[in-house]
């Protein structure tokens, strides 16, 4: 029998249970994918807690994985045995075997191993659209990245350095500061003892930055606005500390006619062409060595609850994968 991690009601990591499931044959446009590695992402915890409610219960969390095609439905060009990866849904990645829409799968080059693929797709393509589309980073810019030692953060730091930017990054400890520095962050700020607004103003000679990339949310949002130069862009792409409370939009005028966006990978890769372009861009920077994907934690899929606990405790750095 095939197993998966499911939860029957929202809650803490303890609601995640290892259960037998039925996986049928693929229908038109689908493949049956035997997964070899699954990516762990903070959005998985939002689904588990009900912050981002899923449409039905019991539910299988997870939005990212890699594996081998073991059956194809009508109208599918992929072949049995093809290695593929995906990110962004549909939800249900925490499973040994699953059905997937073929048009959401990206064929993997031979030089990418399965753990690396599962660790890089969602976080890497998120970094791609943030740096290349949401705010196209230019050489000579100084930018601010929160959670710089996290999975997306480490990729953002490396990729921004390749693009010629100077990176300021917030981290929670000296160890994480050193890790971020090793990955391209010129100015790590340990937020537990340093005021990041004051440090950003100091580093930029009072000018502020053109863009802030913020996946933390409630704890950093308002202060991040004070880090922006006039007409700068606040990019809120996560909320690991909680949802940002309602904001009077008049504050955007008061702080310099600044902009705010809340983008998602799902929208930026909704079209097949955009998905493939984003993946190709990511593969290029990884293959060149400009961006290294650090798989720093590995858990058995059946121990997904422990992985969620580590994520909540901020005990992880870089990428984490679950192995069926």
Automatic annotation (TrEMBL):
Keyword annotations of the record: NADP, Oxidoreductase
GO cellular component: cytosol
Pfam families from the UniProt entry: ADH_N, ADH_zinc_N
Keyword Secreted belongs to the record: no
TM helices/strands, residue ranges: none
InterPro entries in the record: ADH-like_C, ADH-like_N, ER, GroES-like_sf, NAD(P)-bd_dom_sf, QOR-like, Quin_OxRdtase/zeta-crystal_CS
Domain Enoyl reductase (ER): 11-322
SMART domains: PKS_ER
Annotated signal sequence range: none
Protein's recorded name: Quinone oxidoreductase
One Gene Ontology molecular-function label: quinone reductase (NADPH) activity
């Amino acid at each position: 029998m095939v197993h998966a991690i499911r939860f029957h009601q929202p809650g803490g990591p303890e609601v995640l249970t290892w259960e037998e499931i039925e996986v049928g044959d693929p229908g038109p446009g689908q493949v049956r994918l035997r997964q070899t590695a699954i990516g762990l992402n903070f959005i998985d915890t939002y689904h588990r807690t009900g912050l981002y409610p899923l449409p039905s219960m019991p539910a299988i969390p997870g939005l990212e994985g890699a594996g081998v095609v073991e059956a194809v439905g009508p109208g599918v060009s992929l072949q049995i045995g093809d290695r593929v990866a995906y990110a962004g849904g549909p939800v249900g990645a925490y499973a040994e075997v699953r059905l997937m829409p073929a048009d959401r799968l990206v064929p993997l080059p031979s030089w990418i191993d399965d753990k690396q693929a599962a660790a890089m797709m969602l976080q890497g393509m998120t970094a791609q659209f943030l740096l290349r589309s949401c705010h196209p980073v230019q050489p000579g810019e100084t930018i601010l990245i929160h959670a710089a030692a996290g999975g997306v953060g480490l990729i953002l730091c490396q990729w921004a350095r390749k693009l010629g930017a100077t990176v300021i990054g917030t981290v929670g400890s000296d160890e994480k500061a050193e890790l971020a520095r090793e990955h391209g962050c010129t100015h790590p700020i340990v937020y537990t003892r340093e005021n990041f607004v004051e440090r950003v103003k100091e580093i930029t000679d009072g000018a502020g930055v053109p863009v802030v990339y913020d996946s933390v949310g409630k704890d950093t949002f308002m202060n991040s606005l004070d880090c922006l130069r006039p007409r700068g862009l606040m990019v809120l792409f996560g909320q690991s500390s909680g949802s940002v409370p309602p904001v009077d939009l008049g504050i955007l005028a008061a702080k310099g006619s600044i902009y705010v966006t809340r983008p998602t990978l799902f929208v930026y890769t909704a079209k097949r062409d955009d998905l493939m372009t984003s993946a190709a861009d990511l593969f290029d920077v990884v293959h060149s060595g400009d961006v290294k994907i650090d798989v720093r934690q590995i858990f058995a899929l059946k121990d997904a609850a422990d992985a969620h606990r580590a994520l909540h405790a901020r005990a992880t750095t870089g990428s984490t994968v679950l192995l069926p």
